[in-house]
């Protein structure tokens, strides 16, 4: 899932088989290493990498036709955004389960029953899958068996998707706290109290942890101990997760502005005024920013200047976008509340194709070896190629 606004028992679940580097650089060397250690076709966390750029290289040899390869039926809505690692897709559902699904076939490998709906998107790292839950817990689940390794209890629900650095998991809570949790033991390392709920997902770049809150703030924290380095105030709530690219933090606000803020200093680089609120997280690649506005259009902005390069209308029955875009091979993929997964050309915004599901798409797409994977509120996980 993107910014996640506000348990059924699992029966026999089967998959239906239908057919047989841009560096996301934050600022500094450490962020480059952290953000690029995944292989190019792994999507180990929400928005692919710690900097949350949600992009593979624009020249990556990746061409899709918009045909369904397989779908996997859960027993509840899928608002969680999938993670992909070494041929396995991990995704949560409103049925209270975390699923592990074979990427090639859509076959379920295991499911772990958690304590509530799973809106958070999984993070896969060193044998464990980390995911937040609406029961207020962060779960560490064995990557191979699905056995729960440990749980961490926050004061309220966790819709935020975790980030990881140096043996710590970072995740936000509805209680307004950002938590740093030891990956091995599940014990609390530190927490920082923000203003308003934190439903967005933190980004890591260089020696900074960036997180947004409903109180309208972007915070830059020390990942080591949670010390506040600087904070940036906007005029509205922030649901958008921050994205870091080339030393700049990009995010949107409900004050109808999209912001570019210097990652080192917290100073404004530029801001782009939209016609409506900005709710979803941006993607970044090739010196361009891709972000949806709640006027139901996808915008492409020049990253250094904020200049509008193009915009494209997405159909939707409600004036709010929740799925955030993913970029690969000169194409942008994004879901819509009209139930469609859209494929747009990054150079001009032209819609190449769209694939229709039965209900709204809140989940954000993940790129994998066999196509684009996305969940729908119809309860199905789709792999489209």
Describe the structure.
This protein has about 375 residues and is mostly beta strands. It has one domain: 7 Propeller (Methylamine Dehydrogenase, Chain H). Helix content is about 0%, strand content about 40%. It has a five-stranded antiparallel beta sheet with strand order 1-2-33-32-31, with no helix packed on it. Strands 3-4-5-6 form a four-stranded antiparallel beta sheet, with no helix packed on it. The chain has a four-stranded antiparallel beta sheet with strand order 7-8-9-10, with no helix packed on it. The longest helix is centred in the first third of the chain and has 8 residues, at about 30-35. The two termini are about 20 Å apart. About 60% of the residues are buried. The model is unreliable at about 1-40 (pLDDT under 50).
Concise summary:
The protein is mostly beta strands and 385 residues long.
Question: Helices and strands in order, then pairings?
Answer:
Layout (H helix, E strand, L loop, with lengths): L15 E2 L11 H8 L31 E6 L9 E3 L2 E5 L4 E6 L5 E6 L9 E3 L2 E5 L4 E6 L5 E6 L9 E3 L2 E5 L4 E6 L5 E6 L9 E3 L2 E5 L4 E5 L6 E6 L9 E3 L2 E5 L4 E6 L5 E6 L9 E3 L2 E6 L3 E6 L5 E6 L12 E3 L2 E5 L4 E6 L5 E6 L9 E3 L2 E5 L4 E5 L1
Antiparallel strand pairs: 1-2, 2-33, 3-4, 4-5, 5-6, 7-8, 8-9, 9-10, 11-12, 12-13, 13-14, 15-16, 16-17, 17-18, 19-20, 20-21, 21-22, 23-24, 24-25, 25-26, 27-28, 28-29, 29-30, 31-32, 32-33
């Amino acid at each position: 899932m993107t910014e996640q606004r506000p348990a059924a028992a699992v029966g026999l679940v089967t998959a239906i088989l239908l057919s047989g580097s841009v560096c996301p650089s934050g600022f500094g060397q450490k962020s480059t290493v952290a953000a690029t250690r995944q292989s190019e076709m792994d999507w180990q966390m929400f928005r692919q990498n710690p900097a949350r750029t949600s992009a593979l290289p624009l020249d990556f040899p990746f061409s899709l036709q918009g045909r369904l390869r397989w779908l996997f039926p859960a027993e509840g809505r899928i608002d969680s955004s999938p993670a992909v690692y070494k041929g396995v897709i991990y995704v949560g559902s409103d049925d209270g389960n975390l699923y592990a699904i074979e990427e090639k076939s859509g076959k379920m490998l295991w499911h772990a029953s958690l304590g509530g709906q799973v809106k958070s998107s999984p993070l896969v790292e060193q044998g464990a899958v980390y995911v937040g839950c609406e029961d207020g817990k962060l779960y560490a689940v064995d990557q191979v068996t699905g056995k729960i390794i440990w749980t961490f209890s926050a004061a309220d629900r966790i819709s935020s998707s975790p980030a990881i650095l140096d043996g710590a998991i970072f995740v936000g809570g509805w209680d307004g706290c950002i938590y740093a949790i030891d990956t091995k033991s599940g014990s609390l390392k530190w927490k920082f109290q923000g203003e308003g709920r934190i439903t967005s997902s933190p980004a890591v770049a260089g020696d900074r942890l960036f997180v947004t809150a409903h109180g309208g703030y972007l915070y830059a924290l020390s990942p080591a101990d949670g010390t506040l380095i600087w904070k940036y105030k906007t005029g509205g709530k922030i649901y958008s997760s921050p994205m870091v690219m080339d030393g700049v933090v990009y995010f949107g606000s409900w004050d109808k502005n999209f912001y570019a803020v210097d990652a080192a200093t917290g100073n404004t680089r530029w801001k782009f005024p939209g016609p409506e609120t900005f709710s979803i997280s941006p993607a970044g690649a090739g010196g361009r920013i891709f972000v949806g506005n709640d006027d139901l259009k996808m915008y492409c902005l020049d990253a250094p200047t904020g200049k509008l390069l193009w915009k494209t209308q997405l159909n939707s029955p409600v004036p709010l976008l929740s799925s955030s875009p993913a970029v690969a091979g000169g194409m942008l993929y994004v879901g819509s509340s009209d139930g469609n997964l859209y494929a747009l050309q990054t150079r001009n915004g032209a819609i190449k194709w769209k694939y229709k599901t039965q209900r709204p798409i809140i989940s954000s797409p993940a790129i994998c070896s066999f196509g684009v994977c996305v969940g729908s509120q119809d309860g199905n996980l789709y792999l489209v190629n």
